[in-house]
Amino acid sequence: MVSAIEMSIPKFIQYFIDDVLPARDYEQFGILLLILAALFVISIILAAARKRVERILQEKPAMDVLRAMLEQLRYLGLSYYEKNAAGSTLSLFKEEVNQLQHIYRRYFPSLIHQGIMLLISTSLLVQTNAYLSLIIIPCFLSYYLVGPYFEKKATIWARESQSRRTQANQQLYNSFSAFLELRAFGAQKWDTQRLIEQFTFMQRANNIQNWFAYSRGTVRRVTIGLGALAMFWFGIGMVQSGELTVGAFIAFSLLYTRVIRLLTSMVTLTTEQRLTIIQTEKLYLFMKEQAEVKQPTAPIKLHEVKGELSFYNVTFAYPGRDPIIEQFNLEVTSGMKVALVGKSGNGKSTLTKLIGRFYDPQDGEIYLDGIALRQFDLTNLRDHVGFVFQEAFLYGDTVRANIAFACDDPTEEQIVEAAKAAYAHDFIMELPQGYDTVVGERGIKLSGGQKQRIAIARLFLRMPKVLVLDEATSALDNVSEYEVKKALEALMENCTTITVAHRLSTVQDYDQIVVVDQGRNAEQGTYEELIARGGLFYQLLKGESEHE
Ligand SMILES: Nc1ncnc2c1ncn2[C@@H]1O[C@H](COP(=O)(O)OP(=O)(O)OP(=O)(O)O)[C@@H](O)[C@H]1O
């Protein structure tokens, strides 16, 4: 309706010039003005309603897309994070989603709107003068033949510039993350140089894209101009010979500009849309990607487990790599404390990822309480297995939120109890706002040991039956290590514990020590047994003391 009202204006002008003016019919003129004013008001109201509908149509799918992407990220799990740089995932959320939104925000509504306008205006144009309307055909054809070349180039370069922007952002992200190292090594100049090169590279693509976009605009303007020349040439001749009235000629010229603009703009839209759809390919592939680890069809949920773990002939390789874990066997009874030791790169951390089912072994099986991990409901399994990593991550939020985040609405008492158990309560109370102090990136910085104790407090809230510690204390100094160790010991009391240990001096109290060598369980026993055996463990220990 809005389109129809907009399009009727030239016909009103024609009627006014050809009928109302010669007859000097001022009453008619008044009525005409009233109708125009009414139509104008209606079109304003309708246009506002259109904007409202468009906004709803724009915002709702944007939320749906975001939600679907976040769910997909969760579904893909750790292997996706390990395979893809954080910067490229960020760009997926920003740029690719933007492209997708472009399709339904700009292209679909514009195509519908312009399509209707085109239909109405073309029929009015033909109705005004069919013969003169024929000039549209050569004008449109010449644009149709030349225009898309520039369209495509402009869009391809837009795509190139986008991919270069992603790379530049990625580099910027790396640069922020490595700030300390860059400073320490006096490499800031080197880094700035690399960043500037990357951004210049991006800018070059931008310039080329702008040039093609400008050329496209020029082709369009030339086409419209040539058509207008032809229209004046033939039109004025027809007015002189009386075949066309002055009003009809003016209406025609107004309609002509509309039609040719609409036609060229629709060519632009469809070409751009085709290329934009290609641009969203990465997003499409991301949404179609299959997770390495899938939820079983009939998942088993256990309210409580004993914490018995067994590895049976486990063989695992990261995608596209040689096996890291080979024929690994291990029995861990409930409450046992097992340390995994061995040279760097032999697969200790990988074993812990298999326990949390962040990856599935290609061969063999891992069982918890006699049930294969693959059969467990994923969330339920992770409720029973708790992790403490080398460095704890804290959200830019309050201490309270950082302790509570992995639990459903714990009470204040539970949070404080957990913090006390993790030897974190005292230092939390000394913070400016206690549990309400904002920590993490945008708040107060805590020491490595304090962060670890907050991470341990999280686990006290969940009380997992299997505890996996991946070098949880290796990044700490002696004092912090002592406090974190106390917290861990309290947590370990009722758990089966698997620890990846770097320093062999820390594993003396463990029930079993497993030497992981080239992905195999090469040697196993208590500290004393392994020393007495004089094998791999003994050599590792000797190597370590020689080092010291
Ligand atoms: N996500 C991954 N994708 C591909 N290869 C990986 C991945 N993670 C680790 N690796 C490789 O697997 C091997 C074993 O790594 P892992 O971290 O399990 O060893 P580790 O014994 O824990 O070593 P460290 O004591 O140094 O931590 C290494 O060669 C490593 O490069």
From TrEMBL:
SUPFAM superfamilies to which the protein is assigned, alphabetical: ABC transporter transmembrane region (SSF90123), P-loop containing nucleoside triphosphate hydrolases (SSF52540)
Location(s) in or outside the cell: Cell membrane
Membrane topology, from the record: Multi-pass membrane protein
Residue span, ABC transmembrane type-1 domain: 1-272
Keyword annotations: ATP-binding, Membrane, Nucleotide-binding, Transmembrane, Transmembrane helix
Listed GO MF terms: ATP binding
Domain (ABC transporter): residue spans on this chain: 309-543
InterPro entries: AAA+_ATPase, ABC1_TM_dom, ABC1_TM_sf, ABC_transporter-like_ATP-bd, ABC_transporter-like_CS, P-loop_NTPase, Type_1_exporter
Alphabetical list of Gene3D superfamilies matching this protein: ABC transporter type 1, transmembrane domain, P-loop containing nucleotide triphosphate hydrolases
Pfam families: ABC_membrane (PF00664), ABC_tran (PF00005)
Bilayer-crossing regions: 29-49, 107-125, 131-150, 222-240
Classification via PROSITE patterns: ABC_TM1F (PS50929), ABC_TRANSPORTER_1 (PS00211), ABC_TRANSPORTER_2 (PS50893)
Main location, first listed in the record: membrane
Source organism superkingdom: Bacteria
PANTHER family associated with the record: ATP-BINDING CASSETTE SUB-FAMILY B MEMBER 10, MITOCHONDRIAL, ATP-DEPENDENT PERMEASE MDL1, MITOCHONDRIAL
Protein name as annotated: ABC transporter ATP-binding protein
Organism listed in the record: Paenibacillus septentrionalis
